[in-house]
Specification:
This protein is of the alpha+beta class and 768 residues long. It is built from 29 helices and 20 strands. The strands form five sheets. Strands 1, 2, 3, 4, 5 and 6 form a six-stranded mixed β-sheet that branches. It has a five-stranded mixed β-sheet with strand order 12-16-14-15-13. Strand 18 (715-724) and strand 19 (727-739) form a beta hairpin. Helix 22 (516-546) packs across helix 25 (587-602) and helix 28 (701-711) runs antiparallel to helix 29 (742-753).
Length: 768
């Protein structure tokens, strides 16, 4: 019965969100953690640390035990068992004495109210800094759990960027918490498991901590979906029994052939993890759902049964050196056929986390599939412990190895991302995007190989090459063919970036870039560009607000500016200009306050009173190109030659409208929100404007109207056609055209009027 169940198991069978079934599964925990004792920790650290370091760690243990005296975990054990377990994991990675001490002390600040200064005095400044970086931000108040999570994560990133031991201790802490999570409420277990899956497990994978990554995923799977975990576990056990004979036969063939090729290898059996199997089944279901619109697919393909997940079992070969890796690959392929498309060479092209290995999938006896990983012992050590395997902590950056440098660069990209996102929610979402495991390899024209996430675009590649290349990117060639910048790259693509002389990142790039580096660099450039534009616009608007009073911006004395800035706790006039340009301050109000400050400083009362009766307010010049702080209203589509007014929108800048636009009429009562404006000549810019045409319907009507518009040297951006309900022979065309100014529009309309089918033509105006 167990075997039949295994073969019939489908993804639908493990997708039930039955709360009662989940709660029932919480009663027993398949992961039975054993609380480590200090003697076990002492044995581990004595292998690689000096006696004085072991003594210092013992002091830290005694200090932590006293600080946590009387505290119990929800599991019923003494609280000190948790720091000991975390320190034991750290010792397995052979981190230094400071890291082990910090692991033992990581909760004393938060739970026992021990000060950072006291820790520094007893165990050194480095250990105190590590403990402080690991402390939560409980003293701060946040609007939501998500905001608190983002703030904690950012603090951790900040510390990680200068000291990688922070994240290593944090991961060890999370690992032990996940091992003992079975004592928590089911809803809390699901929340913590989800957070672990989305953030901590991918971080462990990115750092190359494969053992931690796998255990975190499986523990999270058990705690988030216990019923699914149990069902899948039973199916895997049954399938293992069914395929045992075939797998034994395949392993015997491998062990027999390798010595014949002169390869001395250690052959280890391995089994695909439950969460990995579950993920593959979910991916297959998603593919089937996307393809259901294609009736050509056979009905049997609409479900992915468990028995079709062939590569559940596999082998790992540990060989003496890299040459033996490739020799072993040849030996395996000489007796068993490789499965097409499943070979990966991570030795020639290592992953970003330093992982190196050969992967191939063999078709063994009876058609059984088994993935084989071939690596050296050093590669295996790095695969299991990643950046921790390279650990040699030095204060001098010159001694940090290449993998640590890459990790620091990755952490810095996440920090840059936080500086250029719009809040906690967006920051966490972008972090999750940059932690997903997919990876492709693309090649530059000079033959350099770049590792990028799945679905990366040429823009991501450009920023991976250099920030300046990304800023100046205007096009690309993929495998010698011109392609759009939003094209998704594939492994093996050769990408050439076409650049311009000047930087011009497009805000639309943010819709399809995948890497945190590209997104952060684009946002940073656009933010600085908007700031510069806001300062320029704000200065012009303030100058116009001062002119009716007989002053210009240049005539306001430094003393008056200093008084104005001091009263508002601001640092420079540029900040004031930027606030005005972004619509956060009214130029009229700022002008009035500046004049009062000028009057108090220099006593110019008479001059001010006389000048207030001078000429009317001058007009702000509208420069053709739209930008981040001055843009044309879509409701009325102003073009050069139209009488226009600028509306100051808070946090949006200046919006240019037609003077008779209803939006302007609604804002007239708001003091300082309306700014008289005029056009500055710009022959290079084209402006969108919509015209409405009532015409007779026939076969040639559209062609004739399009030809008429083209004859006026005008482009058509968009067109829509509506039939008149009361006039079956007539239609209404709404066409958006690009014109230089009002005269050009008049020329276009004259040409269209000459078309025989046209009855009436008018420019589309906004409704009141």
């Amino acid at each position: 019965m167990e075997s039949a169940h295994a073969h019939a198991l489908q993804i639908d069978d493990i997708a039930t969100d039955d709360a009662e079934a989940d709660v029932a599964c919480f009663v027993q925990n398949p992961f039975d953690p054993v609380g480590p004792l200090f003697e076990i920790l002492k044995e581990k650290i004595a292998v690689y640390l000096k006696d004085e370091d072991v003594s210092r760690i013992k002091d830290a243990y005694c200090f932590a035990a006293k600080a946590h005296s009387g505290q119990m975990r929800k599991s019923g054990e003494l609280y000190i068992a948790h720091p000991l377990a975390v320190a034991s994991v750290i010792a397995d990675w052979h981190l230094d004495a400071q890291a082990v001490c910090a692991a033992l002390l990581h909760d004393v600040v938060e739970d026992a109210f021990i000060s950072k200064a006291e820790i520094a005095e007893r165990f050194g400044q480095h250990a105190a800094e590590l403990v402080d970086s690991l402390s939560k931000l409980d003293k701060l108040k946040f609007r939501s759990h998500e905001e608190a999570q983002a703030a904690n994560f950012y603090k951790m990133l900040l510390a990680m960027s200068s000291d990688l031991r922070v994240i290593l201790i944090k991961l060890a802490d999370r690992l032990h918490n996940m091992r003992t999570l079975f004592v928590m409420r089911p809803d809390k277990r699901r929340r913590i498991a989800g957070e672990t899956l989305e953030i901590y497990a991918p971080i462990a994978r990115r750092l190359g901590l494969d053992g931690v990554f796998q255990e975190l995923e499986d523990l999270s799977f058990f705690n988030k979906h216990p019923w699914r975990h149990r069902a899948l576990s039973r199916a895997v056990t049954a399938e293992r029994n069914n395929r045992r004979r075939l797998l034994t036969q395949l392993q015997a063939g491998i062990e027999e052939r390798l010595p014949q090729w002169g390869v001395k290898a250690e052959v280890q059996g391995r089994e695909k993890r439950l969460y990995s199997i579950y993920s593959k089944m979910r991916e297959r279901v998603a593919e089937v759902r996307r393809s259901r619109a294609h009736p050509a697919r056979p009905v049997g393909e609409k479900r992915r049964v468990f028995s079709h997940v062939y590569d559940i079992h596999g082998f790992r070969l540990i060989v003496p050196d890299a040459a033996a890796c490739y020799l072993s690959l040849g030996a395996l392929h000489s007796i068993y056929q490789p499965y097409p498309g499943r070979f990966k060479d991570y030795i020639a092209m290592p992953r970003e986390n330093g992982y190196r290995s050969l992967h191939t999938t063999l078709i063994g006896p009876g058609g059984v599939l088994a993935e084989v990983q071939i690596r050296t012992r050093e590669m295996h050590r790095i695969a299991e412990t990643g950046v921790a395997a390279h650990w040699l902590y030095k204060d001098d950056d010159k001694n940090i190895n290449e993998l640590q440098k890459q990790t620091h660069a990755w952490l810095q990209s996440l920090l840059d991302l936080q500086m250029n996102t719009g809040g906690a929610s967006e920051f966490l979402e972008q972090v999750k995007v940059n932690l997903f495991p997919g990876e492709i390899f693309v090649i530059s024209p000079k033959g350099r190989i770049f590792s990028l996430p799945d679905s990366s675009t040429p823009v991501d590649f450009a920023y991976a090459v250099h920030t300046d290349v990304g800023h100046r990117c205007v096009g690309c060639r993929i495998n010698s063919d011109y392609k759009p910048l939003n094209t998704e790259l594939q492994s093996g693509d050769q990408v050439e970036i076409i650049t311009s002389a000047y930087p011009s990142p497009n805000p639309a790039w943010l819709n399809y870039v995948r890497t945190g580096r590209a997104r952060a660099r684009i946002r940073h450039f656009l933010k600085n560009k908007q700031q510069d534009e806001a300062i320029g616009l704000g200065e012009r608007m303030l100058d116009l607000a001062l002119r009716p009073h007989g002053f210009t911006v240049d005539e306001i004395s430094p003393a008056a500016w200093e008084r104005f800035l001091r009263d508002r706790n601001m640092t420079s006039s540029r900040d004031v200009y930027a606030d005005i340009g972004l619509g956060n301050r009214m130029p009229v109000a700022v002008a009035r306050r500046l004049l009062l400050a000028q009057k108090r400083v220099e006593g110019l009362t008479g001059k001010l009173e006389n000048k207030e009766k001078d000429a009317s307010m001058p007009r702000l010049k509208i420069r053709g190109g739209e930008n981040g702080v001055m843009h044309l209203a879509r409701c009325c589509q102003p073009i050069p030659g139209d009488p226009v007014v600028g509306l100051v929108r808070r946090k949006q800048g200046l919006e240019v409208h037609l003077r008779d636009c209803p939006a302007v009429a609604r804002m007239r009562g708001h003091l300082g929100r309306c700014v008289d404006a005029d056009w500055e000549p710009d022959e290079t810019r084209l402006f969108d404007v919509t015209i409405r045409i009532l015409c007779y319907s026939n076969d040639n009507m559209l062609v004739r109207i399009a030809n008429a518009i083209s004859s006026a040297n005008c482009n058509i951006q968009n067109a829509a056609l509506d039939h008149q309900a009361d006039m079956s022979s007539s239609v209404v065309l709404r066409i958006t055209v690009q014109v230089r100014d009002r005269r050009h529009l008049a020329q276009v309309m004259r040409c269209v009027r000459q078309v025989p089918e046209v009855k009436r033509i008018e420019r589309l105006k906004p409704d009141a």
